Amino acid sequence: MVGNTIISEADTICGGLHLGINIGGHLWNWGCEEHPQPGTVGNPGCTAEPDPNEAVPCGSDTCQVWLVVPEGSTLTMKDNSVTGSQVNYFIEGMIINGTFLDENNISMTPRQTDWREADIGCYGIPWGPLDKAAHHPSLPGYVDLIFHCY
Protein backbone atom coordinates (compact mmCIF):
# COMPACT_ATOMS: atom_id res chain seq x y z
CA MET A 1 0.00 0.00 0.00
CA VAL A 2 1.86 2.99 -1.24
CA GLY A 3 0.65 6.50 -2.05
CA ASN A 4 -3.06 6.18 -1.28
CA THR A 5 -5.30 9.10 -0.28
CA ILE A 6 -8.44 8.28 1.69
CA ILE A 7 -10.95 10.90 2.79
CA SER A 8 -13.88 9.70 4.88
CA GLU A 9 -17.00 11.78 4.39
CA ALA A 10 -19.20 9.27 6.22
CA ASP A 11 -21.99 10.45 8.48
CA THR A 12 -20.87 10.86 12.10
CA ILE A 13 -24.40 10.14 13.40
CA CYS A 14 -25.29 7.04 11.42
CA GLY A 15 -23.13 4.33 10.00
CA GLY A 16 -21.06 2.68 12.70
CA LEU A 17 -17.29 2.32 12.68
CA HIS A 18 -15.34 4.01 9.89
CA LEU A 19 -11.81 2.81 9.17
CA GLY A 20 -9.34 4.40 6.76
CA ILE A 21 -6.64 1.85 5.90
CA ASN A 22 -7.17 -1.43 7.70
CA ILE A 23 -5.00 -4.50 7.47
CA GLY A 24 -5.21 -7.98 8.94
CA GLY A 25 -7.45 -10.82 9.96
CA HIS A 26 -10.05 -8.74 11.74
CA LEU A 27 -11.71 -10.31 14.74
CA TRP A 28 -15.29 -9.23 14.02
CA ASN A 29 -17.26 -12.33 14.97
CA TRP A 30 -13.91 -13.56 16.27
CA GLY A 31 -12.43 -13.80 12.75
CA CYS A 32 -13.56 -17.39 12.28
CA GLU A 33 -13.77 -19.19 8.93
CA GLU A 34 -15.75 -22.43 8.80
CA HIS A 35 -14.00 -23.71 5.67
CA PRO A 36 -10.67 -21.84 5.35
CA GLN A 37 -8.80 -21.73 2.06
CA PRO A 38 -5.72 -23.94 1.66
CA GLY A 39 -2.61 -22.21 2.99
CA THR A 40 -4.56 -20.20 5.57
CA VAL A 41 -2.91 -19.79 8.99
CA GLY A 42 -4.90 -19.47 12.20
CA ASN A 43 -5.99 -20.86 15.56
CA PRO A 44 -8.16 -23.97 15.67
CA GLY A 45 -11.62 -23.21 17.07
CA CYS A 46 -12.82 -19.75 18.10
CA THR A 47 -12.00 -17.64 21.14
CA ALA A 48 -12.46 -13.96 21.95
CA GLU A 49 -8.71 -13.30 22.16
CA PRO A 50 -6.72 -15.89 20.17
CA ASP A 51 -3.02 -16.32 20.88
CA PRO A 52 -0.86 -15.72 17.78
CA ASN A 53 1.76 -18.08 19.20
CA GLU A 54 -0.74 -20.93 18.81
CA ALA A 55 -1.38 -20.30 15.11
CA VAL A 56 -0.85 -23.23 12.75
CA PRO A 57 -1.89 -24.04 9.18
CA CYS A 58 -5.68 -24.34 9.19
CA GLY A 59 -7.32 -27.66 8.47
CA SER A 60 -10.80 -28.09 7.05
CA ASP A 61 -12.54 -27.22 10.34
CA THR A 62 -13.29 -23.79 11.84
CA CYS A 63 -10.18 -21.64 12.17
CA GLN A 64 -9.47 -18.09 13.37
CA VAL A 65 -7.44 -16.62 10.54
CA TRP A 66 -4.37 -14.38 10.74
CA LEU A 67 -2.58 -12.31 8.14
CA VAL A 68 1.01 -13.56 8.19
CA VAL A 69 4.03 -11.60 6.98
CA PRO A 70 6.42 -14.52 6.42
CA GLU A 71 10.08 -14.46 7.36
CA GLY A 72 12.09 -12.78 4.62
CA SER A 73 9.02 -10.86 3.34
CA THR A 74 8.04 -7.21 3.75
CA LEU A 75 4.57 -5.67 3.94
CA THR A 76 4.94 -2.01 2.98
CA MET A 77 2.58 0.79 4.02
CA LYS A 78 4.18 4.05 2.89
CA ASP A 79 3.27 7.60 1.82
CA ASN A 80 -0.45 7.24 2.51
CA SER A 81 -2.83 9.92 3.75
CA VAL A 82 -6.06 9.24 5.64
CA THR A 83 -8.51 11.92 6.79
CA GLY A 84 -11.70 11.78 8.84
CA SER A 85 -12.14 8.11 9.75
CA GLN A 86 -12.78 7.06 13.35
CA VAL A 87 -9.54 5.08 13.15
CA ASN A 88 -7.40 6.32 10.29
CA TYR A 89 -5.00 3.33 10.35
CA PHE A 90 -6.16 0.04 11.89
CA ILE A 91 -4.23 -3.23 12.09
CA GLU A 92 -5.56 -6.38 13.72
CA GLY A 93 -4.88 -10.10 13.52
CA MET A 94 -1.43 -9.91 11.96
CA ILE A 95 1.58 -12.11 12.72
CA ILE A 96 4.82 -10.40 11.71
CA ASN A 97 7.63 -12.89 11.17
CA GLY A 98 9.10 -10.72 8.41
CA THR A 99 9.09 -6.92 8.22
CA PHE A 100 6.22 -4.45 8.45
CA LEU A 101 7.40 -1.16 6.94
CA ASP A 102 5.28 1.78 8.14
CA GLU A 103 6.75 5.03 6.78
CA ASN A 104 5.48 8.54 6.12
CA ASN A 105 1.81 7.72 6.64
CA ILE A 106 -0.16 10.86 7.45
CA SER A 107 -3.24 10.87 9.68
CA MET A 108 -5.47 13.93 9.70
CA THR A 109 -8.52 14.79 11.81
CA PRO A 110 -9.89 11.42 12.86
CA ARG A 111 -13.48 11.86 14.08
CA GLN A 112 -15.99 10.12 16.30
CA THR A 113 -18.86 8.13 14.81
CA ASP A 114 -21.89 6.51 16.39
CA TRP A 115 -20.37 3.04 16.79
CA ARG A 116 -21.73 1.73 20.11
CA GLU A 117 -18.53 -0.04 21.21
CA ALA A 118 -16.55 3.19 20.96
CA ASP A 119 -18.98 4.95 23.32
CA ILE A 120 -19.30 2.22 25.96
CA GLY A 121 -15.98 0.53 25.26
CA CYS A 122 -14.91 -3.04 25.03
CA TYR A 123 -14.67 -4.48 28.51
CA GLY A 124 -15.34 -1.00 29.90
CA ILE A 125 -12.60 0.84 28.00
CA PRO A 126 -14.18 3.49 25.73
CA TRP A 127 -12.21 5.18 22.97
CA GLY A 128 -12.61 8.11 20.64
CA PRO A 129 -11.12 9.06 17.30
CA LEU A 130 -7.65 7.57 16.76
CA ASP A 131 -4.81 8.13 14.34
CA LYS A 132 -3.44 4.59 14.58
CA ALA A 133 -4.62 1.48 16.43
CA ALA A 134 -3.35 -2.11 16.37
CA HIS A 135 -4.50 -5.17 18.27
CA HIS A 136 -2.64 -8.41 17.73
CA PRO A 137 0.04 -7.15 17.16
CA SER A 138 1.14 -4.14 19.16
CA LEU A 139 3.17 -1.80 16.99
CA PRO A 140 5.27 1.30 17.78
CA GLY A 141 3.15 4.45 17.46
CA TYR A 142 -0.15 2.53 17.57
CA VAL A 143 -2.69 2.41 20.42
CA ASP A 144 -3.40 -1.22 21.43
CA LEU A 145 -7.17 -1.61 21.96
CA ILE A 146 -9.77 -4.34 21.72
CA PHE A 147 -12.38 -3.28 19.16
CA HIS A 148 -14.59 -6.35 19.19
CA CYS A 149 -16.59 -7.03 22.35
CA TYR A 150 -18.22 -10.32 21.41
Short description:
The chain is mainly beta. Helix content is about 5%, strand content about 35%.
List the topology elements.
Layout lengths: L4 E3 L11 E5 L8 E2 L7 E4 L11 E2 L5 E7 L4 E5 L2 E3 L3 E6 L1 E3 L2 E5 L2 E3 L7 H5 L9 E6 L15
Parallel strand pairs: 1-8, 2-9, 6-10, 7-11, 8-12, 9-13
Antiparallel strand pairs: 3-6, 4-5, 4-6
Number of domains: 1
Count all strands and give the number: 13
Query: Oligomeric status of the shown chains?
Result: single chain
What is the residue-mean pLDDT, rounded to a whole number?
A: 86
β content, as a range? 35-45%
Gap from first CA to last CA: 30 Å
Indicate the percent of residues in helices: under 10%
Q: Profile the largest sheet.
A: 5 strands, mixed
Question: Given the helix and strand composition, which structural class is it?
Answer: mainly beta
Structure overview:
The structure is a single chain. By secondary structure, this protein is mainly beta. It has one domain. It is built from 1 helix and 13 strands; from the N terminus they run E-E-E-E-E-E-E-E-E-E-E-E-H-E. The protein has one helix at residues 116-120; strands spanning 5-7, 19-23, 32-33, 41-44, 56-57, 63-69, 74-78, 81-83, 87-92, 94-96, 99-103, 106-108, 130-135. The strands form 4 sheets. Strands 3, 4, 5, 6 and 10 form a 5-stranded mixed β-sheet that branches. A 3-stranded parallel β-sheet has the order 1-8-12, with no helix packed on it. The relative contact order is 0.24. The model has no long low-confidence stretch (mean pLDDT 86).
